Amino acid sequence: MSEQIGNAANPALVMLVEDEYLVRANALQALVEAGFDVVEAANSDQAMATLEADAGSVRVLFTDVQMPGGSMDGLALAHHTRQKWPWIAVAIASGNAAPIRAEVPEGCRLFAKPYALRDVVAHLQALTGSRH
Fold it and tell me: How far apart are CA 132 and CA 90, in angstroms?
C-alpha cells in the first residue's frame, strides 16, 4: 500500500470532481462527516485550475469519468494528475461509461456508480490513514 497521507490534526484534502450537483453534494457531505477537508469542482477545468494553484495541498483526487463542460473527461484528468502530481492518490467513479481496467491509471481505484459512499470513505480513509 502507498504511504498514508493526512492525520487527525491535519486532515487530508480531497479534490471532489463531479458534474452532477446532487451526487457531488452527497459525496461532499459523507467526506466532510468522515473528517476530510474537501474542495469541489464541477468539471475538469475547475479541478485543473485548483490543482495548478495549489496541488501541494491536495492529497486525493476523486473524480467522475463523464463530465461535460470541461476540456477532458475524468480518466484524462486522472492520468494527467498522476503524471504531473504523482503524490496525489486517485479514485475514479464511473456510471454510464465503464472503462476497462487498462484505461484506469495504475494504482487508481475504480468505483462503479451507484457506489456506496461508505466504500468510498473507507477507501479514502485507508489511503490517508484517517479514521474518524
Answer: 21
